[in-house]
Records
---
Amino acid sequence: LLTTGKELRSLLLKIEVDSLVIEDARKLTSKCTKQCKLNDQQIDAIVTVCCACPLAIRVISDAINDSPNSTHIISLIQKRTDPIFSPLLQIYECLSQPFEKLKENKSTLCQLSLFGTTKFDMNSAANIIFGKFETSMEKKEIIKKLTELKLTILLFKSRHLIEIENDECLYSPSGQIADIELEDLFARQKIYSLHPLVCKFLKDKADDKEIVGDIRKAKYNYI
């Protein structure tokens, strides 16, 4: 935030919103699904299943918008409005849909969960996923890996599974190969973080057989 030439970033207070009041949740649902033109009953069903959690509402809304058969998804949601699950389990079920669509990228997201809710940059993410690059590795191969990681993180953002902060940081090689092309590629890096609910969800997924090996490798790189 800039005003009268002074930066007031440090004066902004970040507040985590676990759930909205029902009317605000309905407005958010209507806005996120406006291309589907849902009726009041359908909107109420989504709000109920998502427990008025804004993160879950955005995740489910994206699933509805992206589906070629959105009416089928909505009908399934309307059948699940009975309070048979705790609010947390209902939200986890909402997060499961975009998570499963990640396929081979599920492991990468779970590896990033080792940061918890701590903010991290692209360089930190690369260190935890790749470890130190071999000195014999060609520069173009390193750039390819880092570029793919950057695109993967943007994919996570598009699914509301990762958040991009307003802050920026300068690129620092920190053990990676220092090179002008790498600095150009990752100059003024964004800062990322995981929503607390997403972080808890991923911790539960970390024990899956197809993921546990990658988590162990990431822990080694982290240490």
---
Amino acid sequence: AISACEKGGQWQLAVLLLRRIVDMRATPNVISCSAAICACERAGQWGPALELLGRSRARGLEPDATACNSALSACRKSAFWGRALGLLGLMESKALAADVVTYDTVILACEQDEPLPRMVELLEGLHWAGRCRLEHCVVSSGTSKK
């Protein structure tokens, strides 16, 4: 049902259904939490997306890359690059699988307010960590400005 809400653009209903699961003293799983976070992301609701991510972690559920990428995307859409960087740091500290989508989303979030030194640092770190080729990140970053 939560996935249907996500696909139908009903982020508030997705959040409500997730809360009802908790109210019934049942434990939501990673899939239902991710679907609710994705629903928030599609609506550009970064606050509820991050809140759901935090509550999931508080319940002992470690979010997957899809949930984290959705929360990052919500931050990007709302021009909250600082939150995006914080979430990336959280992912790295918890050894969550960040992928090219994760880093592209963070780079795009940073471009909105152009904290250039931080973007350069992020690109260099990605390159040296072997997480993505520097050329790919630079091309991705450059095409978003057009």
---
Amino acid sequence: MRRVLALLLAEDGHTIVQAEGAQQALRFLSQEMFDVVLTDHRMPDGKGLDVIDACTDVSPYLPVIMITSFASIDLAVDAMRHGAFDFIAKPFEPDAVRAAVRRAIDHCKVQRENSLLRSEVHRIKSGGDEFLGTSAPIRCLREQIVRVAPTDTTVLILGETGTGKELVSRTIHAMSLRAQMPFIAVNCAAMPESLLESILFGHEKGAFTGANQAKQGLFEAAHGGSLFLDEIGEMPFALQAKLLRFFTNGEVLRVGAHTPRHVDVRLLLATNRNLEDMVKTGGFRQDLYYRIAVVPLTVPPLRDRRDDIPGLVEHFLRIVRTELNLPVRSITPSALAALQAYSFAGNVRELRNLIERAYILGSGDEITLEDLPIPQAAGEDGEAPASEPPEGEINLREYIDRTERTIVERTLRECAGNQSEAARRLCLSRSDMNYRVRKFGLHGVR
């Protein structure tokens, strides 16, 4: 039976590890990680219940399917009491085993994701990473999250790169009534329009070249749960109409399909752009904007909560020391003052990267001003630093764009045009860097 099951499940693309008995299975469990375990009830050297108990000790999220020819209500109840996920009687139908394994793997995935989400809830309540601090802006954000999470309304999360918008969305989901259902995140700026449409809404077989089989989109995959659309301001105009259809009647239409499908999904959206300005210039649909801007939450940039920086620095020092097993290091008052005066383009994400880099590359018991790769006074070529605009009347938007272009271009030249390395140095995602290269016409910079 073991070999038959192995062949059956291998055909579905699963990687199979076979144990000849209970004792060998227990050894495997202590040495490797598994997504699902199938065990017989009776084996020459042990019982299936012992395997179930061992799996529970290894991970509370590891599902076990018991297969036996001695099926009885008492045995089924006993197996479930020990923690079995499912119970299959011999002789079994191959499709029944396949379905049970699929359910078990999906269950395992959801449980692990929920565990991570619960950890994130604890982090925000206790103050973790992006949400550490006692400043008024961060306290206000925490309170807003607690109020909006239990509702089922659409939430638009506003904030700069690196402020923690996705963490806000995950926390809202974890504190909602949908917490036990899927949470799926997708970056709308990270892929071309044709691919994004298929990923979000799915496609039918033959809808386009290479569509050899029908495939559900993320809206369908998130049914019952939450779908997080990051960088919603980058969504192509044509796709905005399909998104509006969902808001109108709760339906999505696969690419190449004629019949819409109903889905039950809570949408959480985020952007670092001004959607109101985009509406005025025709870059974003006004009717869609009114649908998604029901409850806007603003994640404050680090420069608006400078009083939180000392606590964040101490937190990251502890994190880096623990994760990398490094000796204890502190930070000098002058270095801390420089961090508090610095305008973080990458916000909390950039702060953490700076601390980790200084901790690893610095020497001595303290992180000094020289260990921090941040401008101290004037920039290169005598330029004023980004945080000090020229005197007199200025156009703020033009000044910000000009400063941002200078920083991005300089970093690209330092990296010989390597956009991935430049994005890493600026604490930007690759899609954010691509957007800025297009925006400022920096394709040929070397």
---
Amino acid sequence: MNINKTVLIKGKQEQLIKYVINHLLPDVDTLQIQESEFQNILTDKNYNTPRNSWTKLVLPISNNKDYQNLMLRFDKKLRIGRILEILDLLSGFVSYKHCNFDYYQNNQVIIVTACADNVKFYKYISPQEDIVIQSYVCYVGKSSIEVQNDIYQQNELIVIQLKKYLFFYKYLKERNLHNKIFGGFLARILIEAGWLCGYYHVKGQEIPEIVNLTDIQFIEPVNIGDSIQVISHVSYILDNYMDVKIQAKIVNPTNIQDSKVTTGMHLILKCQNQINDVIPQTYEHGILYLEGKRLIWFLPSFLVD
């Protein structure tokens, strides 16, 4: 969804989004956060349009050293986990914008991330060019909102179309948004742990490339102070592709066996050469093997050589 004429977000909305992303991004006062110049005037607050919540964010990684240090890995490639963290934050902002910020300020609406349907990589993300993210609501159900994020470089759709489902709860005044761990932070930790697992599998002889993220689920909220255990497995190999399943569990420090899954996802990596196969040894590993096989075999055709 492209908007030809945009203006910088001002007023309370600008203050809110910059306050939220201040802990995540440097130099927030210099960020370009834009919205559509021509918005639909609504007479009924129970309805809204995608144009009214459409938001554009420009990440200046081409010439800003602070952003380069934040967004790039040791090999000067982009940290996909950081991108997903920013997308999660921006999706929440767009969702609140769609629902009317007055409801948020009165604690009548609480939105949490439920899952990300899919992340598609169309082209290589250049670390020498600015990243432009456009976020907008594409579907609304009775208790859910679907937000799509498109990433561009030089006005061309480069990387990702990300669909996120966020549950929409009304009148839950006892809930406090700041008592839970930010979902984008968990997603970034899982992505980086999964990539490291694949990197270890090829024994550091190659730098795996992330080509797909799928089945991203936020199952349980994580409270401040919870102990988190991250587990990753290389579940399936197809030629030079590998599927890595990653899970985060909340662990009881007094009984490490007492744990519950809070977040999970599958990460598909690509190498230049053939990857050593994995052979399941247990029933649990066999289930992981079948999950990974299903995901890799149903990869979009443009990802498979």
